[in-house]
Amino acid sequence: MSDALRIIPLGGLGEVGKNMTVYETGGELMVVEAGLAFPRDEHLGIDLLLPDFGYLLGRRVRAVVLTHGHEDHVGGLPYLLREVDVQTVVATRLTLALVKSKLDEHGVGKSTELLEAAPGDDPLELGPFRVGMIRVAHSIPDAVSLVVETDAGRVVHTGDWKLDHTPVDGQRTDVGALAEVGNLGVDLLLGDSTNAERPGSTGSERLVGEAFRTLIPLRTGRVLVASFASNIHRMQQAADVAIECGRKITVVGRSMRKNLNIARNLGYVDIPEEAIVSPGEAAELPPGDVLALCTGSQGEPMSALTRVAYGDHPTLGVEPGDTVIISAKPVPGNELRVHDSINQLARAGAEVLHEEIAPVHVSGHACQEELRTMLSLLRPRYVMPIHGEYRMLAAHGKLAREAGVPEDRIMLAENGSVVELSRGGARLVDRVDAGVTFVDGLRVGDVQDVALRDRRRLADDGVLIVVTTVASSDGGEIAPPELIARGVVESEDLLDELRVEADRVVQSLAAEHATEIKLLQEHIHDAVGQIVYDRTRRRPMILPVVIEI
Question: Does the predicted model carry a pTM greater than 0.90?
Answer without folding.
Answer: no
